[in-house]
Amino acid sequence: MSLNEPQGPPTPPPAQPPAEAAAPAEAPAAPQPPTEAKASVPAPAPSPQQAQAAAQPQPYPAQAQPYPAQPYPGQPYPGPPQPGYPGGPYPGMPYAAPLPPTDVLRSPRGLAVAVTALLGVAAAVNLFSAAISGYVFSLMKRVSADPADVGQGTLDRSDILTAAAGSLQSLILLATAVVFIIWFHRVRVNGEIMRPDAFVQKRGWAIGGWFVPIGNLFLPFQIAKQTWTASTQLGPDGSFREVSAAPLNAWWALWASSLVLDRVFSLMYKRADTPEALRDASAVGMVTDLVTVAAAVLAIVFVRKLTAMQTTKAQQGPYAAV
User: What residues form DSSP beta bridges with 234?
Assistant: First the structure.
């Protein structure tokens, strides 16, 4: 066919053989807006090094590291840091529990000096009260023998002296009790540090035991005895050494007796409505005061001895040198 002849209608495409499945017709492409023709610039030919690098397989990009506060996959979130608590050694581990407060030995010598001074004053006040009780006893004896032998002024003076002695006793007892209980709790805590297995009651009973009715007749003594044992040094070979607790036993026997006698005296004094009853109450009051004086003196011995035992054990250690 020459190029000058007119072309006829286009020849249809050859039919596909019947054995082959006809492919589904594709959807016609959406018409694209006409674009301006751009001149194509041929790309520069790559260098041999670039072609070799492109032919090699590229590694995957490195994975980003997690944020400091983000847990690693499969690990629990450690939670925000708590102030004052050390963090775990590895990410995701729980924070360490706070350390319990530790007790330290505290010297009881200063308190022992204050208790000793107050006990000395208490002994003097109770000695003065015993003298007043003796004076009232003799006065009521004279009234019982001859009521006209004692004037009203003398009776009023005895009442004033009795009230003054009672007020002084109350004041010195309160001051001495406060300082003594503080010292008692101090040596109790020191004893628990030195030997924890020597105690049965909690340390709070060193204070509360004094205020339990009837229990105050034996609870403080048990705590004092346990503290005495805990404050005793062991032998050089670790064997148990027993230090005589005679000051403790004698002090408590007199102190418990004075408590009972004081209760009896108070009941008798309130019910005294005759010179004879007041005379008998004054006799019991005089005995009570003298027993209290002896208990105060033995308390001084006990306080000084126990304080010295704890000081020695704190300075030299749990084992005695000889």
Answer: 319
Are the CB atoms for 180 and 115 separated by under 8 Å?
yes
Contacts of 276 (CB under 8 A, 6+ apart): 140, 144
Ranges under pLDDT 70 in the chain = 1-102, 322
Two structure tokens written together for 230? 């805990």
Amino acid at 18: P
DSSP annotation of 319: B
- The long-range contacts involving 164-168, CB below 8 angstroms and separated by at least 24 positions, are 165/125, 165/128, 165/129, 165/132, 165/133, 166/129, 168/125, 168/128, 168/129
Give the pLDDT confidence score for residue 117 in this predicted structure.
Answer: 98
Both tokens of 139, joined, read 């006065």
pLDDT of residue 139: 94
Report pTM.
0.68
Q: What is the pLDDT of residue 321?
A: 79
Hey, what amino acid is at 97? A
Identify the pLDDT of residue 29. Answer: 47
Residue found by looking up tokens 């007020």 in the block: 167
Q: Among 310, 308, 293, which Cα is nearest to 176's? A: 293
The amino acid that residue 271 corresponds to is R
Q: How far is CA 311 from the centre of its chain?
A: 24
Task: Show the tokens assigned to 279.
Answer: 């005379």
Q: Which structure tokens are listed for 286?
A: 């005089």
Residues 180-195: pLDDT tens digits? 999 999 999 999 999 9
DSSP per-residue codes, 166-216: HHHHHHHHHHHHHHHHHHHHHHHHHHHHH-GGG--S-TTHHHHGGGSTTGG
pLDDT, residue 91, reads 52
Hey, how many other C-beta atoms are within 10 angstroms of the C-beta on 92? Answer: 13
Q: Closest Cα to residue 193, out of 110, 106, 109, 108?
A: 106
